[in-house]
Design brief:
The protein has 131 residues and is an alpha+beta fold. Helix content is 31%, strand content 20%. It is built from two helices and seven strands; from the N terminus they run ββαβββββα. It has helices at 36-42, 97-130; strands spanning 15-20, 26-29, 56-58, 64-66, 68-70, 74-76, 85-88. The strands form two sheets. Strands 2-1-7-3-4 form a five-stranded mixed β-sheet, with helices on both faces. Strands 5-6 form a two-stranded antiparallel sheet. A hairpin with a 5-residue loop joins strand 1 and strand 2. The longest helix has 34 residues, at 97-130. The chain is elongated, with a radius of gyration of 18 Å. The protein starts with 14 loop residues before the first strand and ends with a helix.
């Protein structure tokens, strides 16, 4: 940091974003102790085209987490934290490279868009405060 620089630390984010193959995409209020299944039920569930085995979470810090399966019987779902993005990918043809690139681009674009929005907000607040 240099003289007259300032740091803005945003308030607590208390939402979860759900995207992909769900019926009602959008933001949900974060409720401590609730799991992935709860938030998916709040979106009216997943569509027929959803690939439930590849659902993943992008945490606020950018860390990615996925559901783990043990012996094909037991599933361990990642812990949901405030500011997380839950992404339910569509099924795709494993032999189609075009299908794979489309699927990978959606969550990456979403994370980049969210980070751009946050950086624009922080820059605006910095400029307003600095004037």
């Amino acid at each position: 940091l240099q003289d007259k620089d300032s740091i803005f630390i945003p308030g607590h984010i208390s939402t979860i974003k759900v995207e992909g193959e769900v019926f009602n995409k959008g933001l949900l209020v974060f409720i401590p102790g609730k799991n992935l299944k709860y938030y998916l039920n709040q979106t009216s569930g997943v569509t027929r085209n959803a690939d439930k085995s590849r659902i993943f979470i992008v945490k606020q810090n950018g860390e990615g987490l996925k559901t783990r399966s043990f012996f094909g019987l037991f599933k361990k779902y990642p812990k949901i934290t405030p500011g997380s993005i839950i992404y339910v990918p569509p099924r795709y043809d494993k032999n189609s490279l075009a299908g794979l690139s489309t699927i990978l681009a959606k969550p990456v674009n979403s994370v980049v868009s969210t980070l751009n929005g946050l950086s624009n907000t922080l820059l605006s607040l910095y400029l307003i405060k600095g004037l």
